[in-house]
C-alpha cells in the first residue's frame, strides 16, 4: 500500500446545489475488482489478544488514547462537486425494514455511534468516530477510510482495531467489538483517492471480560482454567499462572452489534441540498487556539449538504456541510439523512473525512465527506453480506 498523508483539516472550495432525495432501492452496476479487503483479526485468539492490548493496566490504552492527528493546510477556494453515477437508493436501518418513524423536536443521540480505537504507525493508541450500519449479520461498522487504512507507513491496515459504541472514560456499555475484515474502494487502498475515503468493517460479536461495563474494574473479570499449550497462545495481559495451573480471561459473548445498538440505514446517489445531522466526537482546537471540544462525549451538528472540492487532496466529488466540529476525533463522524430522533435512526449519507476554515477567520466552519455514490454502495454490498461470528 502506498504511503499517504493524513488529511483532516484541509483547504476547501464550495458550490451550493439543491435537489430531492430519491427513495427507490436500486443496485448500481459495480465493476469487478473495485472493492479491496484486508483482514484485521483472523482468529478468536488473535481477536482476544487485540482486546488484551486495550484492557492492559486497567484499560490504560483506551483511557489515554488520543484523537487521530490532523494536518492543517492553508485556505484555498475552488469550485467542484459530485454527480450521481446511477439511480438514487436507500437501505433501511435495522428495525426500519418495514417501518417509517415519527418526528420529534428533540435530538436524541444515536446508540449506533461510538469510537474506533487502533494503534497508529507511531505505536500509540488513537481513536476516530464510527457508527453501526445495516448488514445481513448485523455486524458492520462505517468510518473514514483513513481510520482503518494506515496513512503514514506502508502498512495496509491500522493495528489492533476495535469499535466501542457509547464509549465513555473506560466504559463499554454494549461491549467491545473487534474488527475482523476491512472493506474499502480499490482506489483508496491503492491510489489514495480522497473521493473514496470511507471504509466498512465487519466485527465479531461483542465481548465483555466480566459482568460490568467498566473495563478498568479488574475485580469483575472471570477466569477459565486451560492447558499450558492454550495458555501460551494468549497475550500476557489476559492470562495468569498460579500453583502450576493456567488461566485465561473468560470473555462473555454479548451478541451482535446491530442487535445491541441498532444499525443506521444507507443512502447513496442522493441529490444535494438536504439537511443532515452529523454525530461525532470532535476534539482539539480551532486554528485560532480556541478549544471548543474535548472529544469525551458525543456531539451533533445540523446543516444542508452542498458540493465541495478540496484541491489539497486527490478528490473530485466531495460533499460539505456547515459544522464547527474541529478535526481531531471527528474523522468518521456519521452524516445521517432523514434522522428520526424518536427512533434514533436515519440513513448514513456521509462520513467526515476532513474539516476546513473556509472564510479564514481562524474557526473551523465546514466538514467534508466523500459523496456516497454507486461505487460506495458496491463496497457496502461486499461487506454487508459477510459473516464474522463469535470469539468468546
From TrEMBL:
Residue segments, region Disordered: 74-106
Signal peptide: 1-23
Keywords (A to Z) from UniProt: Signal
Name of protein: Serine protease
Organism, as annotated: Microbispora oryzae
Amino acid at each position: 500500500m502506498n504511503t499517504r498523508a493524513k488529511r483532516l483539516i484541509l483547504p476547501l472550495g464550495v458550490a451550493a446545489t439543491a435537489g430531492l432525495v430519491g427513495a427507490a432501492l436500486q443496485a448500481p452496476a459495480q465493476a469487478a475488482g473495485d472493492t479491496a479487503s484486508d483482514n484485521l483479526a483472523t482468529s478468536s485468539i488473535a481477536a482476544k489478544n487485540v482486546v488484551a492490548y486495550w484492557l492492559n493496566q486497567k484499560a490504560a490504552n483506551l483511557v489515554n488514547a488520543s484523537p487521530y492527528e490532523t494536518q492543517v493546510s492553508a485556505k484555498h477556494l475552488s469550485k467542484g462537486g459530485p454527480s450521481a453515477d446511477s439511480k438514487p437508493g436507500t437501505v433501511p436501518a435495522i428495525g426500519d425494514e418495514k417501518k417509517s418513524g415519527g418526528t420529534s423536536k428533540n435530538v436524541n443521540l444515536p446508540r449506533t455511534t461510538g469510537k474506533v480505537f487502533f494503534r497508529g504507525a507511531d505505536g500509540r493508541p488513537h481513536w476516530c468516530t464510527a457508527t453501526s450500519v445495516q448488514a445481513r449479520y448485523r455486524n458492520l461498522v462505517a468510518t473514514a477510510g483513513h481510520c482503518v487504512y494506515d496513512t503514514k507507513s506502508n502498512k495496509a491496515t491500522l493495528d489492533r482495531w476495535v469499535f466501542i459504541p457509547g464509549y465513555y472514560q473506560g466504559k463499554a456499555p454494549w461491549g467491545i467489538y473487534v474488527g475482523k475484515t476491512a472493506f474499502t474502494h480499490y482506489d483508496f487502498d491503492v491510489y489514495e483517492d480522497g473521493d473514496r475515503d470511507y471504509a466498512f468493517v465487519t466485527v465479531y460479536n461483542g465481548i465483555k471480560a466480566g459482568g460490568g461495563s467498566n473495563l478498568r474494574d479488574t475485580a469483575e473479570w472471570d477466569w477459565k482454567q486451560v492447558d499450558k499449550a492454550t495458555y501460551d497462545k494468549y497475550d500476557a495481559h489476559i492470562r495468569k499462572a498460579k500453583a502450576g495451573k493456567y488461566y485465561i480471561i473468560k470473555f462473555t459473548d454479548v451478541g451482535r452489534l446491530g442487535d445491541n445498538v441498532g444499525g443506521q440505514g444507507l443512502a447513496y446517489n442522493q441529490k444535494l441540498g438536504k439537511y443532515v445531522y452529523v454525530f461525532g466526537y470532535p476534539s482539539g482546537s480551532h486554528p485560532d487556539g480556541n478549544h471548543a471540544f474535548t472529544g469525551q462525549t458525543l456531539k451533533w451538528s445540523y446543516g444542508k449538504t452542498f458540493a465541495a472540492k478540496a484541491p489539497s487532496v486527490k478528490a473530485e466529488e466531495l460533499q460539505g456541510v456547515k459544522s464547527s466540529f474541529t478535526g481531531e476525533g471527528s474523522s468518521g463522524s456519521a452524516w445521517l439523512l432523514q434522522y428520526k430522533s424518536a427512533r434514533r435512526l436515519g440513513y448514513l449519507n456521509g462520513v467526515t473525512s476532513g474539516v476546513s476554515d473556509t472564510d479564514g477567520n481562524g474557526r473551523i466552519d465546514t466538514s467534508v465527506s466523500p459523496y456516497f455514490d454507486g461505487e460506495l454502495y458496491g463496497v457496502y454490498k461486499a461487506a454487508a453480506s459477510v459473516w464474522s461470528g463469535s470469539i468468546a
